[in-house]
Amino acid sequence: MYSALAAAILALHLLFILWVVFGVIVTRRRPVLRWLHLGCLVWGVGIELLPWTCPLTWAENWLETRAGIAPYQGGFLLHYLDALVYPNIPPGLVTGLGVAVCVFNLGIYAMRFHRRRLLDGW
Predict the structure, then answer these.
(1) Residue-wise DSSP of 88-110
(2) Staple 56 to which of 13, 76, 91, 100, CB 3.0 to 4.6 Å?
């Protein structure tokens, strides 16, 4: 049961990362989603740059320990994406790319805000 719950947390973690990366696409003209996505972007940058442990990573590791599986060390991105997608890239670069994606998304929001201000005559 713990192993299945850990797999569910893993899936939730992947969905959250997809939301952070691609959420800007679905937030246009949806203010509630926009604010939710902005909060997630800030969280994503913070969790990558500060010495915090993501609650989803913590939950997954706790469940894996309960299931008798050795939990991984480090963050989710470094463990799964580095090993799967970027096997020969240094961990700092993976973190930097994650932050860059978040900053890029924030830039899109800044452009939208600026364009709206111009249209509203500010």
Answers:
(1) TS-HHHHHHHHHHHHHHHHHHHH
(2) 13
Q: For 102-122, what is each residue's pLDDT tens digit?
A: 999 999 999 988 888 887 766
Q: In angstroms, rounded to a whole number, what is the distance separating the alpha carbons of residues 24 and 33?
A: 9
Tokens found for residue 32: 């509630």
CA distance 90 to 78: 9
95 pLDDT band, cuts 50/70/90, is confident
Distance of alpha carbon 8 from alpha carbon 4, whole angstroms = 6
> What's the token pair of residue 91?
């961990």
Residue with tokens 């989803």: 56
Is residue 6 within a helix (H) or strand (E), and if so which, with residue range? helix 2-26
Which one, of 3, 18, 37, lies nearest residue 76 by Cα?
Answer: 18
| C-beta of residue 48 within 8 angstroms of C-beta of residue 95 | yes
User: What average pLDDT does this structure show over 17-39?
Assistant: 92
